[in-house]
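Entry under discussion copied across for reference:
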Amino acid sequence: MTQSPARTRPARSVLAGIAAFGALGAYVLVSSVGLGLWTSLGPGPGLFPFAMGAVLASMSVLWLLQELRRPSAAGDKADGGLVLAVVVSLVLLAALLDLLGFQLSMFLFLMYHLKIRGKRGWLSALLTALAGSVGAFYAFNYGLNVALPVSSIPVLNLIGL
């Protein structure tokens, strides 16, 4: 039985991924400075994106150093069905946000991924989806004063969705 030789160089696809994440991080860093990092009242609107851009750019550099030191083994191909399911569900989430509101749209999105795709139990999926949708809504709306979409359907809007 012969062993495959150890990789000596990172795969092009890995380097392309590192470059894409690094470029995105750099773009977010530069763009967020224009929003203002600090105001007389405290943190400005660009501080959080600046921090996230810095983290993304830094992680890209660390990933590159790791790949140069010890390239990862060639991986299996991505599951096309999973990728398609995630992309389609994200498009549907974006399309339904204004109609159903954040809470209901995110609840359905999370239930799909937890129960159908992730094969979690009903109780676990329900509790996690409720915490993720309703909890995030209240954290953003009332904790951070960032308005998330509410339902444009009068009946749903009447009950707080």
Notes: The longest helix spans residues 80-117. The longest strand covers residues 38-39. Strands lie at 38-39, 42-43. The radius of gyration is 21 Å.
